[in-house]
Amino acid sequence: MNIEKTWHELGPFTVFDVETTGMSPARDRIVEIAAIHVDTDGHMTRFHSLVNPGVPIPYQASRVHNISDDMVADAPGFSQIGPRFMDLARGSTLVAHNARFDLGFLQESLFRTGQQLWKGNTMDTLKLARQAFKGLPSYSLQNLRIALCLPEFDGNAHRAYADVEWTVHLLARILDSLMKVVR
Description:
By secondary structure, this protein is α/β, with parallel strands linked by helices.
């Protein structure tokens, strides 16, 4: 008897993305975080928040994600957001596109605010996409979105919530593709 699994049965997963004030986890700060927790039955729980970084957002960073100082002025700090995010992610595998970047900011922000660091499993859809879809000219999230015809969402590229939605669909396509190879 051949019982095929669906991708989410390999979970649970918490797909997440951050937008930041720059590229260095040690010097820069998170300004937005979004996540979708996918249970093994496919149920999805969404989480999203702007984050007050406590420092001005440089013009160059704001040009990328379109998040301004005014937008985060009344947002909670990471010390308030971190525990909510960690509760959502507990017991799952963290997933991000270019996970080294997002996980670096998450860990540094947890450390900086005196919270428990992430010690669970992580997956990187950038690395997995290179295995599942060999030969593409680019593996950026936006190029994969176009090449794989991922659905459109309200929201802009380089905003955490839209990027997380695309990454969930990308993860599904990757895992479905890789599971077909194994069968």
